[in-house]
Amino acid sequence: MSLFITVEGGEGGGKSTNMIYIADYLKAKGYEVVETREPGGTALGEKLRNLLLDKNISNMDCSTELLLMFATRAQHIAEVIKPALDAGKWVLCDRFTDATYAYQGGGRNIPMERIAVLEDWVQGELRPDLTLLLDIPVEEGMKRATLRGEKDRFEQEQISFFERVRQRYLAMAAQQPNRYRIINAAQTLECVQSDIKQVLEEVCCQ
Ligand code: TMP
User: Percentages helix, strand, coil for the chain, rounded to the nearest 5?
Assistant: First the structure.
């Protein structure tokens, strides 16, 4: 059995640190894990990521942004995700299409139906098996993210944008309780990782 696991959440929720924790945990259980991220994950995708995050591009149309997200995703699925799953490996991805629903859908107000069309087109039947949502109140997350220094094109958005992103994530988690697990990322790192471990034990490593 191979699983496709995604990690989602707003800014400052500790995704990078916890991605390492999850990968190490699964590898210690003996699974072969491919760690990757979106936007990016391939040589071409990383170039598109640089464009998407470039704070000097101030006039990117929201449809351009949406289509570039799915362009990097198409390449990522073809080059990395599908081959890995087909080979029986586990895929652990830092963000996937739920980020598009949250940021372009919730944040930019693009209709969900439009995103769903692209999702079906680019992914076919591919969907994550498990999504860990690292949830943190927006102001708390932004305080933590600010400590990281220079802000990218998304991080420069207003707090109301991130409130819409968070609410969209929480709504999706409520609608899809079988796939989603909400982790309270405002806790100490030790508590966050203990919660993550519990989910992994329950879902993946029985
Ligand atoms: P990161 O900071 O988690 O590496 O992600 C980069 C930014 O890209 C983050 O602000 C969220 C944004 N993003 C979208 O807006 N839509 C998407 O589909 C993805 C994958 C990321």
Answer: 55, 15, 30
